[in-house]
Amino acid sequence: MLDTSVRAETPAEEIKLGQTYTVNRTGEAEAHQGNGRSEAPENGFILENKGTPASAVVYKTVEGRKSPIYVSPDGPIKPGVVTLTPRSTCKIWVAGETENTIFVTRYESNPCEIDLTGLRSVEIDYANGKWIRMTENKRSDGLVN
């Protein structure tokens, strides 16, 4: 087995929806908190990468801990401008042997992507090789997610 390591080049910094995060040629944060590009969408972010290719990781505080909720799906982002739009989805699957690692290498079922927009919770069942949506609990506070 090959040894693999992951190294963060820039510190995690707070960014809000509608803002831009710019990384300069040396890999340092140059501008964010709304003082970047004006075309950032209200429901997303803009990453302006002026440096070397890098993967974007977005964290959210969940139960008091910062947890990664998004990693560039196509690997490192080349220098340039990219819009990142979070979606309220999660992907589930069945796996026999698991451990807390970075990569999932084997599924024992087809993954199922669940759209959680407007929902507080959802119950999914897996039987005879199929995912079945059993119940869902809609948000009552009017928020989307």
Care to describe what's here?
By secondary structure, this protein is an all-beta fold. It has 2 domains: 20-84, no CATH class; 89-138, no CATH class. 0% of the residues lie in helices and 39% in strands. It has strands at residues 20-23, 29-31, 45-49, 57-62, 65-71, 80-84, 89-92, 112-115, 119-127, 130-138. The strands form 4 sheets. The protein has a 4-stranded mixed β-sheet, with no helix packed on it. Strands 4-5 form a two-stranded antiparallel ribbon.
Compact summary:
The chain is mainly β and 145 residues long.
Topology:
Elements: E1 20-23, E2 29-31, E3 45-49, E4 57-62, E5 65-71, E6 80-84, E7 89-92, E8 112-115, E9 119-127, E10 130-138
Parallel strand pairs: 1-3
Antiparallel strand pairs: 1-2, 3-6, 4-5, 7-8, 9-10
Q: Provide the domain count.
A: 2
Helix share, percent: under 10%
**Total DSSP helices:** 0
Instruction: Give the percentage of residues in beta strands.
Output: 35-45%
Q: End-to-end distance, in Å?
A: 40 Å
Order of helices and strands: EEEEEEEEEE
Largest sheet: 4 strands, mixed
Instruction: Let me know the average pLDDT.
Output: 75
Strand arrangement within the widest β-sheet reads 2-1-3-6
Tell me, what's the shape?
A: elongated
Kindly provide the radius of gyration, computed on alpha-carbon positions and rounded to a whole number of angstroms.
18 Å
Class by SSE composition: mainly beta
The strand count comes to 10
Low-confidence stretches: none
